Amino acid sequence: MRKKPKKQVAEWRKHILDHHQKTPSRAKRAEFPHSVVEELKNESDGLCQVCFVSRGTQTHHIMPRSRSGRGVKENGLRVCNYCHKMIHEKTSVLNKYIELQREKYGDYFWYDELDKLKFKEEA
Q: Under 8 Å CB-to-CB from 41, ≥6 apart: which residues?
């Protein structure tokens, strides 16, 4: 079977979408950058920020990724394996930490810069 020759693209169409800016995906925006993880480690002195006994080995999204929680410092918490599991299993504990962050940083503490820009445009 013979391949069809490719059609030539008109000159005016070649750069028609160049002005569009591609934004990072939702999943990419939910990842904690290495710099944020390092800041959280330094602030917690390596301890779990829930029990203050074990080493904080994981970075937990206070506002879960499933609820559009972003990978920003205000949405991070260094926790041990046990406390991380407990937070995910007990909604009341998760809600407690969400409320604490709201009091400390405001209602939209988990927003990243793109969310804040969009929020300002809509207001």
A: 56, 78
Instruction: Give residue for tokens 């990072």.
Output: 24
Q: In this predicted model, what pLDDT tens digit does every residue of 52-94 receive, in sequence order?
A: 999 999 999 999 999 999 999 999 999 999 999 999 999 999 9
State the Cα–Cα distance between residues 101 and 106, nearest whole angstrom. 7
DSSP-H helix ranges across 2-106: 26-30, 34-44, 81-89, 91-105
* Bridge partners, residue 108, by sequence: none
Q: Distance between CA 13 and CA 69 in Å, rounded? A: 38
CB 83 within 8 A of CB 50: yes
